[in-house]
Amino acid sequence: MIGFFTLLSRIMGLMRDMVVGYLFGAHGVADAFFVAFRIPNLMRRLTAEGALTAGFVPLFTDYLTHRGKDEAVRLARIVFTFATLSLGALTLLGILFAAPLTRIFAPGFLADPEKFTLTVFLTRLMFPYLLFVSLVALAMGVLNSLRHFMAPALSPVLLNLAIIFCALLLSPFLHQPVVSLGFGVLLGGVAQLLLQIPYLSRHGVSYSPDFHFRHPALRRLLFLMGPAVFGAAVYQINVLVSTILASMLPEGSVSYLYYADRLLQFPLGIFAIALGTAALPSFASLVARRDFTELRAGISYSLQLVNFVALPATLGLIVVSVPTFSLLFQRGAFDADATLRTAQALVYYSLGLWGFSGSKLVLPVFYAMQDTRTPVWVGLGSFILNLVLSLMLMGEVTAGPDADSVGLAVAALSHQLSVISLSHGGLALATSISATFNFLLLLVILDRRLGKFPWSDFLFSFGRNLVNALVMAFPLALIVRRVNWVAYDRSLWVHGIVFISLLGLGILLYLAMSFLWRGPEWRALRDLGVGKRRRLFGKSF
Questions:
Q1: What is the DSSP secondary structure assignment for residue 451, as one 8-state letter?
Q2: Surface-to-core class of residue 508, CB atoms within 10 Å of its CB (0-12 exposed, 13-18 middle, 19+ buried)
Q3: Residue 454 falls in which region: left (phi positive, over 0), alpha (psi -120 to 50) or beta
Q4: What confidence score (pLDDT) does residue 229 get?
Q5: 237-290, pLDDT tens digit by residue?
Q6: Which of 141, 198, 199, 388 has its CA 20 to 30 A from that of 379?
């Protein structure tokens, strides 16, 4: 269910990005919006999805299991109240200090005062989104723990619809049309929150305030949140580092990375994030019952599913990177040069899809065990690795006359550490390498914690699915090379038919290879199909 509604959300998100690309392209004002939106969005990842949810869901599940629903619901009300007050204060601080935050997050924008001023204004406009979406994340944690997945998974669709609506209807009437996107973000945050309320009420959970802040579970949650703020958001922090560094590269670099990251989120969100979201309450329940045998089996099986999906998606994205951006984005303000440069970023981001996906699954295991410290130390190592690799791979940059201390430091370090100049592609590659490092190190530590991890099954699954993916990708790459995807006189319909045929051929080749191996992933896919047919047509089917 999560995967289906996440697919719907990703489709709407893709349409949103197509609208933004058509109206604003990959330069100037688009850079300003993406940086401004990333600031509260990163805070959301840190405070809500990265910390509150990771610490709250195991505690809420433990109360459900051992103390009953009434105590668990009371805990939820206390956390909602505390989160509203604390995040409201953080939102006010963000609005007040938007200018210093922009200087830190985009030091390269200081060379263009108009762009810097616009970014500050958009940051202030969108910062209240942090409060709305954080409360949404808490509501999602409660509903997922109660085994209600539809409303939380559908929620992001409303954000995408709100941005599309405001971009198309408001932008013609505003002095600075890109501000319409900021109003869309605010409207989307409110809509997501309103969606959760009736479903919470059905389960007996209300937003009525409860100021019992001395509750022992709240103190435990705050203790868990401290390290989780960093550990759960390693990927986002690495992306933020890339944004800071990209602001010092040629104009458009921030946008290239944003569009590429958004497309990468398509397979990542549909499968890996959906799997991790559904797994956290289940893992927490197994830990609460101390059923570690079943926990090991669930982790092993889930990681084999990660291999089954992430490896072909990686090679597929690499092969069709240029065709995808050409067909979906290359129109209006989004030109052929933007297509090629964004596709370059996607190729390097795609190399980390396996690591991103694995981390999304392994992290919930640590949170289920109420261990938020280990991901911190691993995340710190990943963060340092990403920073060093970024400086080595982005090439040398120079600081402008108005550069602050951050810009001067980045310029000096880039001159000292630069090995090869891949520009924004180097930043994407550094993020991918550090994400893979993060996943593998967490997996090794988890093996020592749980013991008897079936490494042979995992490694054989990796090799089997990698071979299948290579067999799939080779003929697709030959076909892609024979088409000029970025030509301005291209036939959109003809190229669209070729593109859809490529996707169909790739899926058929991969499934055919998987059928020949008949691995556990293929059996899971077969059983899922049989189960759906039986639900539709009855057991006699």
A1: -
A2: exposed
A3: beta
A4: 59
A5: 666 777 788 888 888 888 899 889 888 887 776 776 667 666 667 777 777 777
A6: 141
Q: Tokens 């569009």 appear where?
A: 259
b/e per residue, 162-195, with b = 16+ CB within 10 A?
bbbbbbeebbeeeeeebbbbbbbbbbbbbbbbeb
Q: Which amino acid is at 338?
A: A
Radius of gyration of the chain (CA): 23
What sign has the CA pseudo-torsion 442, 315, 265, 334? positive
Domain limits, the chain: 2-537
pLDDT tens for residues 364-411? 788 778 777 788 788 888 889 999 999 999 998 887 666 677 778 888
**Side-chain half-sphere CA neighbours of 356 within 13 A:** 32
CA angle, 291 then 370 then 284, to 5°: 40
Comparing 339-343, 460-464, 485-489, 523-527, which segment has the lowest mean pLDDT? 523-527
**What does the alpha-carbon distance between residue 59 and residue 65 come to, in Å, rounded to a whole number?**
10
pLDDT score of 388 = 94
What is the C-alpha separation between 338 and 293, in angstroms, rounded? 50
Tokens of 106: 């985009």
Cα–Cα–Cα angle for 203, 287, 216, rounded to 5 degrees = 65
Least Cα distance to 288 among 100, 63, 102, 125 occurs for 63
Among left, alpha and beta (phi > 0; psi -120 to 50; other), residue 431 is alpha
- pLDDT for res 166: 94
CA distance 448 to 441: 11
Distances in Å between the Cα of 163 and the Cα atoms of 12, 154, 170, 190, 192 are 10, 16, 10, 12, 13
